[in-house]
Amino acid sequence: MTFLHIESSAQEAKVKWYTIEEAEALTKKAPRKIYIDMYTDWCGWCKTMDKKTFTDERIIEHLNTNFYAVKFNAESKDSVVFKNTTFKFVAQGSRGYNELAAALMQGKMSYPTSVFLDEELNLISPLPGYHPPDKLDPVLDFIGNSHYETTSYEQFLSNKGNLNN
Asked: Taking the complete model, does pTM exceed 0.85, yes or no?
């Protein structure tokens, strides 16, 4: 009986998602990097990341341990206050975008995009595109454990590969 309970608990592990406002407040109290999943309701690859990447145990562990994870609809019509600035919806064509998404994605509006912020809420880097668990996992390690401060991603992967051999 106990084994079955442990098994079902492992399957129920989920990413703890926050709003951007919650993540900003939390990082002021207990500093942690912020991971932002920039998505839209119509984006098929965003839905694939939800189903395949954000359900992976390694990804859940990285996000819940090293980051405050935020889901942000890049087309949100709600105004958002972040770093004492109000970001609004900008109508454009048949859709539009939220100014915060444009700022954090550096104007390159492609979905999904993973955005990484440091503990002081400064942009580390946007990472556009769909990333399956095996591709996102080393990125979360690289950024979450601050390896990016001292080495290139290529060197990090090379070093990591040498450790695994």
From this structure: yes
